[in-house]
Amino acid sequence: MTAAIELNDVTFGYRPTEPVLRQVNVTVESGTFLAVAGPNGAGKSTLLNLLAGLHRPQSGTISIEGADVHSYHRQALARKLAIVRQEFVPAFGFSVTETVMMARTPYFGQLGFESQNDRRIVAEALDLTETTRFASRLLAELSGGERQRVFIARALAQETPILLLDEPTSFLDLKHQVGIYDLLRSIQRDKGTTIVAITHDINLAAQYCDLALLLRPCPGNAPGAAGKSRHYHIAPPSEVFTPKGIEEAFGVRVFSAPVGAVSVILPLGQMARDADRLGLHKDL
Amino acid sequence: MHRILSPRILLLRILAAALLLGLVMTACALVGTEHISLKAALAPADGAVAPNPDFEILVHVRIPRIILAAIVGAALAGAGVTFQAVLRNPLADPYILGISSGAGLGAMLAVISGVTWTLWGRSPIAVFAFAGALGTVWLVWMIGRVTGKFHVTGLLLAGVVVNACFSAVIMFLTSIARSQEVHATIFWLMGNMTEEDFFVLWAGAGAVTAGLVALYFISPQLNVISFGQADAQSMGIDVKKTQLVAFALSAFITAVAVSLSGLIGFVGLIVPHAVRLLLGPDHRQLLPLSSLLGAMFLVLADTIARVAIAPAQLPVGVITAMVGGPFFLVLLVRFNRKVYWLK
Amino acid sequence: MRKWWLLLVALAMWNLLGYALAVSHSDDSSQTAPVGSTTARIVSVAPNLTEILYALGLEEAVVGVTAGSDYPPSALDKPKVGTFWQPNIEAIIALRPSLVVTLGFAQQKSLVHRLERMGYPCLTIDIWTVDDLLAAIDTLGKATASEQQAGHLIDGFRVRTRQLEEALKNRQRPRVLWVVQREPLRVAGRDTFINELVELAGGENALGPTLHKYPPIGAEQVIASSPQVIIEPTMVEGDPDRQRQQALAYWDRYANIPAVVDRRIHIIDGDIVSRLGPRLSEGIETIAHCLHPDVLGD
User: Fold this and answer.
1) Is the ipTM of this complex over 0.90?
2) β-strand A232-235 against A211-215: which pairing, if any?
3) Which end of chain A is flanked by fewer CB atoms within 10 Å, N or C?
């Protein structure tokens, strides 16, 4: 069975001499929930953009369901991949239904209107994200968490096997953060969707994802640096989100406590109240 | 109020607006500095004895002028809607990408070079202005390409730069040209509605209508693009192609409008906002209704311009500015209630 | 894709249809407005044309003038057809003219174009120089069947200018600065009809040839040109003495130029020298009076 997403030896940098991602080899099987984490500038958003076909890697290939992402015609790719980006204030005041319906635009009829099928798909998406009650409200009238669900609904309306999300829970309060993760998990379960989500929230992600990808900033370009250590680590979260792993990747001291197979990680600085008392791991 | 648009509702609204436009045009045909009576105008011409001035004025002066105002108003409003959508900027108007200075430069060059040939009876000023307008958009587009990725900001900046350069050239030409030529150009550019001959109106109406229909074809994509390019891309919209088509069509109909009547401001800026306030941002509706409303607006403005300070005539741009200015202020005050802009 | 092609085809057919209609109509259209052949009804679109028409004895025939046609005073009572810069085509049509007379300015040419398209006879006359004026009087005379009066006018004009020429023979020509506008300072150059008047009046332009007809000039040029007489035509109604005081006060800053030293600064009625019309000979004589005050008796 072809993997949903495959990165084969991918190297990419915005400037050819400064790669952001170097020789990355990642395989994501269909139906997997992958969380992507790492410090700022490690290349998480870049990775997402590469998956979406927005950049071309300097070397290596990116395959979506067995075919090179750049071999897909734009609309065909839109049937494979849907992206939910970071939230922003929408322009010009559309309603929730109109917003979700936009995902169906490539399928509109000759006169530019949706079909019965499109309406059904949109209704389902709203239902799955529990946003049906907002259907006629203006997008900008909703709270951040509700709006995020609407954007997820829009992505769902694309009816794709793969869903990419860029920090879907930033700007959301705790309740909504949990709500989003629950939603993603149920989408994965009900539709078999492959989910790749960039997250800053390691602890929450660890409770929901099947695989975690921890990216570190690409090591320098000094000769001999290539081929040394990989700058990323992909494995189940219990192997990736370890206190040591986090400390190395982010360069912070952490306090941790086990929760099931995973540890809860709490980064602390010197000024933190309980820094001494909690005895941070010291082998850095 | 936020029922999603259906084909039937859209059709009804378009028909209603068209009907209203027809009424307005008819009413305005009966208004002017000379009092004419419809009965006298329609009285059968008895042989070739005496000319019927009522008929002449109605049919050969007013109606062509009103039709012209409708064509230009529709074109400017439609182009305004499109530029606002593609550039994601509520302050965009049809002239934003340098069309105004391009047309002005074209007009000046026509006057100064003393060219006298006519193209299908259109004066060289009109033809040069048309070419200048299109050429400028092409130039701005090219600059946008060079700066890469068609970022909206890049295009806007390119437009500003081109506008500035061309305005400087215009000023230079103005200072060395003979005063009469300059006056003629400026007068033309200020916006003038004079009746044109039959084929010009016919072809102009056809061109603008075709352009607006074509823009309607891409209005679902415009809806998505107004959310953002990256989003639109990932939803399967060919953003580059849509942008290109939108710019080309809008520039074309604006150039047609400018070549017909000079530069008339505010229509392309205000009318889209007014319709958006009333009916929402769906471009499938916004485009046709803004065009119809733009036509109505300009017909009314032109009628006022014709009679306000008779026997002289105000340039129609004065009326559109006088109405447009305060309206825009009201818009700014109210905008955060209904319409949301990108930060 | 199909709908785009359909649109293109529809547009092409629309244009063809329009072209066909236009061609089929152009055969019978152009003679819509027949001339009311019995009585002449003339509309004048410029004040100087109005003056000429009146001078040709056509007061009765003139049925409409533009605002600004203020001479002779009776012209003020005629129906108005807009302004010189913006003639009102509706008003013109409503007067059922048999002839519309215009100058050669752009707006008026466009007016002519529109009127002729509707079948109204028009006459465009370019008057840029004094000779143009005489030719214009001749043309108008022929167009309105008043050649005799035209001849009289032209002869009268020529006689007066010849008399003046005689009186001014062998006199030295003073250098004249003709000030059109004081702030910013703008003068009449050599390539203007004003210059012609000055020369006919026995003077010469203090400035050499300039790029513009009415160039703005700076203090340096004023001093360098060393004008002996300064003439300022005024369009404003007002107390002539007061205007002269103001002028003198302005020019005092150029204390060393001959015109200021000799106090030869003249304010004259702008109308008679700015309008290329029948009163021009009067204007020339007025100028001559400023330049050569001892030449009287004209």
Assistant:
1) no
2) antiparallel
3) N
